[in-house]
Predict the structure.
Amino acid sequence: MTESGNARLLEEASAYTPGGVHTSIRIIDPPLCVRRAEGAYIEDVDGRRYIDYHAAFGPFILGHCYPDVVERVVAAIRQTDLYGVSTTELELALAKKVVEHVPSVEQVLLCCTGSEATFHAVRLARAVTGRRHLIKFQGCYHGWHDYLLRNVLSVPERVGQRDPGSAGMLDEVLDNTLVCDFNDLHAVERAVRDHPDDVAAIILEPIPHNLGCIMPRPAFLAGLRAQCDREGIVLIFDEVITGFRHHIGGYQAICGVTPDLTTMGKAMANGFPMAAVGGRRELMQRFNTRPGGDVYFAGTFNAHASCVAASLATIDVLETGKVHEHIFRLGERMRAGLREIVDRAGIPATVAGFGSVYVLYFMEDRPISNYTDLLRNNAPLFVRYRQELMKRGVFEMPMNLKRNHISYSHTDADVDQTLQAAEESLQAALAGCRAQR
Ligand SMILES: Cc1ncc(COP(=O)(O)O)c(C=O)c1O
């Protein structure tokens, strides 16, 4: 199918860049190199068009090259860029919007990536508590830094063990980050009990979308909140995926549980490198952006006008209320359609998701509570099905457990076309997997 131009470009790039790509999980089989994108579609270097649900791991809530965003960015950078001194009217306008919409955020600082945001949130939590340990959940991803890069997509033998996400990480750093199962309050209580007065923060994706989609049990998030209040622990919601995508105020605006700190990114600027850490004023006041603050915060490119303008434009469109209504409705349609397809095929499958996010796992339809439950997913079939989708002009990342995102630019016709491709791809993938056995 797409080998030629895509494979050639990647091969040439590999001579100059290790692996030819600039983020470790951009390598897929078959290679896909995008030349242009518009709305719900991407086009590869051979001119093949795909309906895109990968959405660059999630930023595109409005769609690629969305005109309102592009126009605001162009207008902004004709008159402004970056000064590295004081603040700007644009930055103030964006900070006001985030504070207005996100329940936990009384003050906010802008940075460029989700990894920076979670790094700053953790350091702040340690500073305000004077404690060392962090609690994260098996399978959740919070960025590439040593504080949190452990026990992400662990192989089964490493679940419950020390599982660094990279060579070069220090054991002593890893061991300060404790790992619990998602939805297991007792495990969290035990971890806190075992480290008396030494847990600084609990950090979680309120919906772990790095695994596709695991919904929090109703009492889980409230239970964490209560536990943090009792023990003086900082509760951090990493809303880098859920923020703006599920609600303009993040998932916290839906679930009614308010963390102490929130990290945001991705959909916040519809594809521009914008992220933020925000939370209670009393905590945020410790950052040294304020004279006398003692928690270091900096970044040469923080709040570049192009990204701030993109974020303001994105939020303006979200404020109409039309985006969430549209993407939630299409998400429901997609999930219902996929359920019918797997029922007709009579295979073990689970359709999961929330709002605009959906994922089709190949495993029996039982409730999913944590990462261990997802080890039952038939990974070869999951990847093969998506490779078949690519042949039919639909791009869902052909990588185990990756979620799909619907944007405001996707249409009912796109969903119809995707469901038709899904039915054919499923049959082809099942036949392919059978033949390989
Ligand atoms: C929940 C979550 N937090 C943090 C990050 C890190 O964000 P970035 O890749 O912008 O550094 C990601 C990235 O996928 C994420 O999914």
About this structure: Residues 57, 113-115, 118, 141-143, 205, 210, 238, 240-241, 265, 275 surround pyridoxal-5'-phosphate (CB under 6 Å). The two ends are 24 Å apart (CA to CA). The chain has a mean pLDDT of 97. Residues 359 and 393 are 18 Å apart (CA to CA).
